[in-house]
Amino acid sequence: MSEPRGARGIPSIERFLDELTAWGRRVNLVGSTSPDALQVHVSDALGVVDALPAGARVVDLGSGAGFPGIPLALVRPDLRLTLVEIRERRVAFLRHVKRVLGAGFEVRRTRIEHGPEPSGPYEFALMRAVAPLRRALPLARPWVHDDGEIWVWTREAVPESVDPATGLAGRIELGARGQVLRVRAAAVPRGTL
Length: 193
What we know:
- With 193 residues, the chain is α/β, with parallel strands linked by helices.
- The chain has one domain: Vaccinia Virus protein VP39 (Rossmann fold), CATH 3.40.50.
- It is built from five helices and seven strands, in the order H-H-E-H-E-H-E-E-H-E-E-E.
- The chain has helices spanning 11-24, 35-46, 69-75, 88-101, 133-140, and strands spanning 57-61, 80-85, 106-109, 122-128, 144-154, 168-173, 179-184.
């Protein structure tokens, strides 16, 4: 698999990784801050960069250290991106990166379970390393328009409750690291799966 566009050499991504490494010495933001581990996170995030339509309204739920949201925002400034995180130290980091890089994403401190802000749901909800697929889909559902999609980075198969013929909008393969399942929001029942 070729390296996704922008995975190396974009100064803003390099600066983001420098900030993540520096903060990682004091605050547990991500498992490992080794260059190879961080490159995997960036590559996974940018694996979907060309699949999102121009100007899409996107929410990164459980953003943590900013994956996949920050790399996407840096490579695709046309996206209207909101990063949602509940943990205070991680929110502080996300806001710091936004300020330092002058990036156009928003940061919102709330629980995913509390649902979207009053301005309404998004076109796309992204979830990477938040919860098992069966839990991630119903968590994301309130955040997305009925005609939107929920994208989950996973190694799991599509749950039986989502009909692959009508509920699955597609997959983005990430090689040995799994896939991004694109699930039509309307195919996810409200409540638990």
